Amino acid sequence: MTPELHEDTRVLPVASGRQTRSWLAAALAHHRAAVARVIAVSALAAIASVTPALALGVLVDRVVAGAGSSVLLSIAAVAAAAALVGGVAAGLSVYSVASLGAGLLADLRESVVRRALRMPTRVIDDTGRGDLLSRVTNDVAAVSKAVITVLPTVVIATILTAVSIATMVGLDWRLGLAGAAALPLYGLALHWYLPRSSPRYAAERRAVGERSQAMVESFTGLRTVHAYGLEASQASIVETKSAAARDISIAAFTVFTRMVGRVNRAEFVGLAAVLVVGYMLVEDGAVSVGATTAAALLFHRLFNPIGMILYSFADLQLAAAGLSRLIGVAISTDVDSDAPADTQIDNTLLGGAPPRGGTVELRAVHFGYDARRPVLRGIDLRIEAGTRVALIGASGAGKSTLAAMVAGNLTPTSGSVMIGGIPLDTLPTTVVRQHVATVSQEVHVFAGPLIDDLRLARPSAGTDEVCAALDTIGALEWVRALPRGLDTVVGEGGHQLTDAQAQQMALARLVLVDPPIAVLDEATAEAGSLGARDLERSAAAATAGRTTLVVAHRLSQALQCDEVVVLDRGKVIEQGTPAQLLASEGLFARMWAAWTIQGHGRDAEQ
């Protein structure tokens, strides 16, 4: 099922109304027993709620007929018992509806998080982290509020309305018809409200997402903001986004208040119709005063449930907009829906041969982020298993894009990428992740004990295996020197690691994953000169024996590789060993000459 994008394709997918209803129907079908329980207790609550009105109608007739006090007490006892039963049943109904809704929301939230974690990084980069953050926080909060506070009220009110109208018809069909005369007016109020409110609430959710994105960018880039004195401009951007969200919220609430006036008119017309028709029927002797009284009370009691249904549409609209955004991610086809990432896949179950070895091959690969700007142009490249290859080229030459192709983060516009002799696009994401691991210059240290951070790569890894991985990349000594060693809390709120240490953590994760193919996308670019050389030694140790693709930040890295591939404007223009390319006096040789003139050549000698 492919989510239908609406209005702005720069945001994550938003499910259409049809897709949202389809998801809800499928989810409810898995909880038939809970749904039946909700209907049963809500119907019992509704029947008990109308009983006192009927009892009062009988009471009026008995008083008119001159009945004794014992009869009146019996009727009062029935009304009191019905009120007690109704209260208990209503409480059970609220609990049942809230429990069912909370369970559905929990399932949806987990599905959204699983899908989001498997989305290609380009999707998150294109749409912005703020949109995703807004969905898993603000949208979940809006849906959760509706599920816990609004949905139980609406369900009970809907069933009570249906039972009350049916009871009025049972008293006399003309009384029921008089009460039903107000329903078209309620419908017209809703018909006027929905087309005006839906776009506003959807726009409000988008505006909140844009505000979140602006705040995320401001806080994540706080050092840059302070360094360049951008506090005022960033605050202005956040203020503008916040003002836009505020104005849309006010516009939506204004529409809601105008709908309330239309509801009040419908209430007046309905009650007046019941009283007038009841008076005429009593005059003709068609119904008793008690029946008319009961009908009037029943309709008056509908003010609250119908009002709750209509007035809850503000929250329901917000929840519906949030729900469609959550479902849009949950049913997105931009991710792989196979087993969890930490599951070891039995390749015999894939329906085809698994990748064999670490050979990488690109055949006539073309790629562009849009049709007008091709990034890769007819790349033909074969990397033998165990070979270390450096990608060299100016900024924008296509180095990181080619690396992302090999890592499975991007799909060619045309052509194919193969690992171990198998087309990459035919493999589940989990299989790709087991065969290809990427370390970039943008690494993240997760908050918590350091050993837990490393075990994210392989949850089953024992302490000895973690220590062996750290020892491989030369990090075990400084890790043991931390306040609590492997149990030291790192990341936000914990011990702050240096950039070089964070990169070594990423390399240790690569060792634990133990893939046949590794992609290093400028993985040593964040450290200084001395730190860079240490990181290069760590990277060499982590990738020993693996097919390795290195997006080189310094030309000195290329000399440590078996082969060098030079890219220019998305094409391979040179390929060979470092010695061959230096001797050929081509682009790589000219780049190296310029590099050494600037005094960088000594890095290669150390």
Q: Overview of this structure, please?
A:
- This protein is of the alpha/beta class and 606 residues long.
- The chain has 2 domains: 17-330, ABC transporter type 1, transmembrane domain (ABC transporter transmembrane region fold, Up-down Bundle), CATH 1.20.1560.10; 360-598, Rossmann fold (3-Layer(aba) Sandwich).
- It is built from 22 helices and 12 strands.
- The chain has a 6-stranded mixed beta sheet with strand order 6-9-10-3-11-12, sandwiched between helices.
- Helix 5 runs antiparallel to helix 7.
- It is elongated, with a radius of gyration of 34 Å.
- It starts with 16 loop residues before the first helix and ends with a helix.
- Mean pLDDT is 83; it is low at 1-9 and 336-351.
